[in-house]
Write a structure and sequence with these properties.
This protein has a single domain, classed as Glycosyltransferase (Alpha/alpha barrel), CATH 1.50.10.10. The chain is built from 17 helices and seven strands. A three-stranded antiparallel beta sheet has the order 1-2-3. The chain has a two-stranded antiparallel ribbon with strand order 4-5. Strands 6-7 form a two-stranded antiparallel sheet. α6 runs antiparallel to α7.
Length: 503
């Protein structure tokens, strides 16, 4: 272990020195991209999750500047809620995006596991396990209540503190029969069910526990129906929900897959009908932490699930999703920057880029298996077009873009140095063991906007260009462009694994 630690310290110092020198000499524009090292990017994208860990850190921790934090989480309600992940650059544990992160980490392994190296498969499973261990704690009191968040986001966002120094309230928030949250419960059920598939061959006993809990949590989601927004201001406007029916379909589809049965078909049928009545555009083209429509259609199609195994409507929906993204499609509904980046949001746009690209690649692999094409109006496209599109988005993230920079910290020669992240932007505990309080932290934040982070959050993918052009402002003052999130990285891990062996 001592030798490993020495290697990490040496590598970190070498990376900083090399990046500093080479960035000055780096050519501008996409000519800076000279082929992608997907395997290296995969390794770093998984390492990122260690920088987001909450709780007692293990001796195997590779991002060494992070230390133990939030060791009393759950104490206010008499339970142990230590562990889990901070969602982004703040210090709150939001259960909804954390559960989606777990689902996508698991789906990445399930779909693309054969393309991970032995070492990266191990690390990916460790990242998933850190998440599901927390979700099991959060759901331990089902069917009476489920804990969905730790930390008051309003006070947290009024401070700029390292997670190791937090003195803002660590309030615990819950859903229960009188204050339901069907979307977060169903997403958590999906995460636990998907994780049970991942661990079935290596941790059979634990996989069974995950699946049993997934069933109980899903029962809670369907029995006590209502929106997660019932929690109130601690949830919205941070992670406002736009309906829970899609999560109920999504959770049921994952439970069918995990149980290798059709016992959840009734939920799929009833919720799809509810969605159809509520919205004529039932073939939704969105996919992310708050919208599972495109995801559940492709999952149902892939596993030949659903009432009466009538998958024709799922195929139509999947085509509609793909057609909304293919640049040459007559029904394209998204924009692309001049440099080729899929553009859907002037917030953290990379959230959409990685999730939608993941889904494109999953659908492409399905089409190859059935020898199918994508039908977009009067045009047809082969599955290879979906592959090309998904890969172009990953390559953009890795440096094939007009700015000539990678949007993954620590990858390539030129990458974001001033990310919007408390731990990365403040001196580490190693260099500054004295406490940095709330007010003092703002002195660092309000300093030179071009100042580099003192700590590299290796593998973090930031929000990226968000104005419809390819411009990127590398400043921690701009959270929409420079803040990383776990749910940007989670689907990207599977894509990087696939392209590392198929490019």
């Amino acid at each position: 272990m001592a030798a490993f630690k020495s290697t990490v310290v040496f590598y970190s110092a070498l990376l900083l020195y090399t990046a500093t020198i080479v960035a000055v000499m780096m050519p501008s524009g996409s000519e800076a991209f000279n082929g992608g090292d997907y395997a290296q990017a995969l390794s770093k994208s998984i390492m990122f999750f260690e920088g987001q860990r909450s709780g007692k850190l293990p001796s195997s921790q590779r991002i060494r500047w992070r230390k133990d934090s939030a060791l009393n989480d759950g104490k206010d309600v008499g339970v142990d809620l230590t562990g889990g992940y901070y969602d982004a650059g703040d210090n709150v544990k939001f259960g909804f995006p954390m559960a989606f992160t777990a689902t996508m980490l698991a789906w990445s392994i399930i779909e693309f596991g054969e393309f991970y190296s032995v070492q990266e498969m191990y690390q990916a499973r460790v990242a998933l396990l850190w998440n599901t261990d927390y979700l099991m704690k959060a759901t331990a009191q089902i069917p009476n209540r489920m804990f969905v968040q730790v930390g008051d986001p309003n006070t947290d966002h009024s401070c700029w503190e390292r997670p190791e120094d937090m003195d803002t309230p660590r309030n615990t928030y819950e859903i229960n029969p009188s204050r339901p949250g069907s979307e977060i419960a169903a997403e958590t059920a999906a995460a636990l069910a998907a994780a049970s598939i991942v661990f079935r061959s290596s941790r059979a006993g634990q996989a069974n526990q995950l699946l049993d809990r997934a069933k109980a949590v899903y029962d809670f989601a369907t029995k006590y129906r209502g929106s997660y927004d019932s929690v109130g201001k601690p949830v919205c406007p941070f992670y406002c929900s736009h309906g829970y029916e899609d999560e109920l379909v999504w959770g049921a589809a994952w439970l069918n897959k995990a149980t290798n049965s059709r016992q959840y078909d009734q939920y799929i049928a009833s919720e799809l009908e509810t969605i159809r009545v509520q919205d004529d555009n039932i073939y939704d083209t969105e996919f992310g932490w708050d919208d599972k429509h495109a995801g559940y259609y492709i999952l149902l199609l892939q596993n030949n699930q659903g009432p009466n195994q009538d998958v024709s409507k799922y195929r139509m929906a999947a085509d509609n999703f793909a057609c909304s993204l293919i640049p040459e499609s007559p029904t394209k509904s998204v924009k692309y920057t001049p440099g080729g980046l899929l553009f859907k949001s002037n917030g953290a746009n990379m959230q959409s880029v990685t999730s939608l690209s993941f889904l494109l690649m999953v659908y492409a692999r399905y089409l190859w298996k059935v020898n199918g094409n994508v039908q977009c109006g009067n045009k047809q496209f082969p599955a290879s077009r979906l592959y090309d599109l998904a890969r172009s988005q990953v390559d953009y993230i890795m440096g094939k873009n007009p700015m000539g920079m990678s949007y993954m910290v620590g990858y390539g020669y030129k990458w974001p140095r001033s990310i919007h992240h408390r731990g990365a932007s403040l001196p580490s505990m190693d260099s500054h063991p004295q406490r940095i309080n709330c007010a003092e932290g703002w002195n660092y934040f309000n300093g030179d906007p071009g100042k580099w982070n003192p700590n590299w959050l290796i593998g973090a993918v930031v929000g990226g260009p968000n104005d419809g052009s390819d411009h990127f402002d590398d400043s921690f003052h701009d959270s929409s462009q420079t803040e990383p999130t776990t749910y940007i990285n989670a689907p990207l891990t599977g894509l990087l694994a696939y392209f590392s062996k198929n490019s």
